[in-house]
Design brief:
30% of the residues lie in helices and 32% in strands. With 235 residues, it is an alpha+beta fold. Bound molecules: thymidine-5'-phosphate and aspartic acid.
Length: 235
């Protein structure tokens, strides 16, 4: 199935297949934070992120959000549609955490009346700078129609996932999405949805159940990923 490796990112590898419209994503246990300054391993993370992301992508498809997902091939490998990634990181927030408290002087844990959305330019050399829609248009990162579609899809993802996780006693604090274009220009949800890319807090205790435990050297990193696996799959 896999032919040559075409891309290696911080947490995943991407392989070509015999079908030019399909690629295989392979999830690693490697973790980075602080723009790659901190490097480490979260044992078992690749399996958890692969399985959880696939599960959530299928849930989103059922709720009308098109995604790149095609088929889970193994614990770490998934067949997805080949896309060209829109170089925007889209962040939706329901509760103040991460960069938000320091950037805007709002206490961590403040619940927003309405979710916020922000964009970063996906560019490691520039350290993923925050930008607005007008910057994205000026830089030709996406068209007006694509940006409108991406915003609508992102808020839809938020509504579906917020309700899904609350049933599992988890608050969806915030998350990062990436989108891709199929060869015909259709925008689909791509990349992953996992404890690497979302903040999850236990709904009763606000215990952090995501990559923040690694970013902030809090310990219990693998336990948090395993707990989220348990909340989602009951395993
Ligand atoms: P932030 O508060 O650090 O901006 O992060 C917002 C959300 O985006 C959080 O759920 C973590 C996720 N995220 C990524 O997935 N990748 C990144 O490189 C960054 C900075 C954040
Ligand atoms: N993945 C990003 C990095 O390597 C950061 C993060 O997830 O916090 O810097």
């Amino acid at each position: 199935m896999k032919t040559e490796m075409i891309y290696e990112g911080k947490a995943k590898k991407v392989y070509a297949t015999e079908d030019p419209a399909l690629v295989i994503v392979s999830y690693k246990d490697d973790a980075t934070a602080g723009d790659g300054a901190k490097k480490g391993t979260i044992v078992g993370k690749g399996v958890i992120n692969n399985r959880m992301s696939n599960h959530l992508m299928q849930l989103l498809e059922k709720n009308g959000v098109p995604t790149h997902f095609v088929e889970e091939l193994s614990d770490r490998d998934t067949l997805v549609k080949r896309v060209s990634i829109v170089p925007l990181e889209v962040i939706v927030r329901n509760i103040s955490a991460g960069h938000f408290p320091q950037r805007y002087g709002v206490e961590e844990g403040t619940v927003f009346e309405n979710p916020t959305i922000e964009f970063s330019y996906k560019n490691d050399d520039l350290h993923d700078p925050l930008l607005n829609e007008y910057h994205a248009l000026a830089l030709k990162l996406a068209t007006r129609e694509e940006i409108d579609r991406i915003k609508a899809m992102s808020f839809q993802v938020n509504e579906v996932l917020k309700a899904y996780f609350l049933k599992r006693n988890v608050k969806l604090v915030d998350f990062k999405l990436e989108f891709g274009r199929l060869s015909d220009g259709t925008i689909v949800l791509a990349d992953e949805i996992s404890p690497d890319t979302c903040r999850f807090w236990d709904a009763d205790t606000n215990e952090k159940l995501d990559k923040d435990r690694f970013r902030r050297d809090m310990g219990g990193v693998e336990d948090a990923y395993n707990e989220m696996m348990h909340r989602v799959f009951g395993e």
